[in-house]
Amino acid sequence: MANTQAFCTSAKQEILNGSHALGTQAANGVRTVTTKDAFKMALYLASATVNATTTAYSVTGELAASGNYTAGGNAVTNATVPTTSGTTAFWTPSASVSWVALTSSGSFDCALLYNDTSTGDLAVAAFTFGAQSIVAGTFNLTMPTNDATTGLIRIA
Amino acid sequence: MMITTIHGLVDDALLEKRVGVDENENEIVNWTEYWVRDELVHRSVDMHLKAALFADAVSANFE
């Protein structure tokens, strides 16, 4: 099987249900979101099957917990509030996600963004790239520019 | 400069450094490798994502 870049279908529904707080919001008459959720990115082997049907973080297909890779991946820095430009809403992590002194257990080509605060570690999106192997080195996942054209997550 | 390798910290003067850049519509990849003869002892990658994920928000009309 293979990994496919996708906005997870379940996440689209969860956004409609208010299950992912990428930012905070003032009171809407029912609830006030004062604390945004914490998100992580986990890395998956090129042989894994992460795609639009992925609903939650899973250790299946993830890089092995060895060579300084911790199961579950690394935290995403979220200091940028979701915003809009024109008819597009967008959000991007405010910093790169890095794995240092890493020796990957195999070739990997996917990073899964998931909600670490949520019950069940709900998946948000899968990002694929050319397969890589890291040897005693750093894997740095640099984010795109946070705007309506290149923001990592966009709804238009 | 000391480089972290599979053999521990090694002076880069003892290593062969190779660097490269690969780019496609999805990402820009800057990679750095250090070799000792035919052995890869260090590989680091900076993966710059270019593509955004996109969800079309569609509303229906009342009929």
Could you walk me through the main structural features you see in this protein, from its secondary elements to its overall organization?
- The complex is a heterodimer of chains A (156) and B (63).
- Chain A has one helix and ten strands, in the order βαβββββββββ.
- With 156 residues, chain A is mostly beta strands.
- Chain B has strands at residues 2-5, 8-11, 16-23, 27-36, 39-49, 53-55.
- Chain B has 63 residues and is mainly β.
- The radius of gyration of chain B is 21 Å and the shape is rod-shaped.
- Chain B has no helices and six strands.
Taking all residues together, what is the mean pLDDT of chain B? 90
Strand content of chain A: 25-35%
Q: Report the helical percentage of chain A.
A: under 10%
Structural class assignment of chain A:
mainly beta
> What spatial order of strands do you see in the largest sheet of chain A?
1-8-7-2-3
- Helix-strand topology string of chain B: EEEEEE
Cα separation of the termini of chain A: 31 Å
The secondary structure category of chain B is: mainly beta
List the keywords.
heterodimer; A: 156 residues; mainly beta; five-stranded antiparallel β-sheet; three-stranded antiparallel β-sheet; 1 helix; 10 strands; globular; B: 63 residues; two-stranded antiparallel ribbon; 6 strands
Task: Provide a compact summary of the structure.
The complex is a heterodimer of chains A (about 160) and B (about 60). In chain A, a hairpin with a 7-residue loop joins strand 7 and strand 8 (about 125-130). Chain A has one helix spanning about 10-15; strands at about 5, 40-45, 75, 85, 90, 95-100, 110-115, 125-130, 135-140, 155.
Write the layout of secondary structure elements.
The complex is a heterodimer of chains A (156) and B (63).
Chain A: E1 6-7, H1 9-16, E2 39-45, E3 74-75, E4 83-85, E5 88-91, E6 97-102, E7 108-115, E8 123-132, E9 137-142, E10 153-155
Antiparallel strand pairs in A: 1-8, 2-3, 2-7, 4-5, 5-10, 6-9, 7-8
Chain B: E1 2-5, E2 8-11, E3 16-23, E4 27-36, E5 39-49, E6 53-55
Antiparallel strand pairs in B: 1-2, 3-4, 4-5
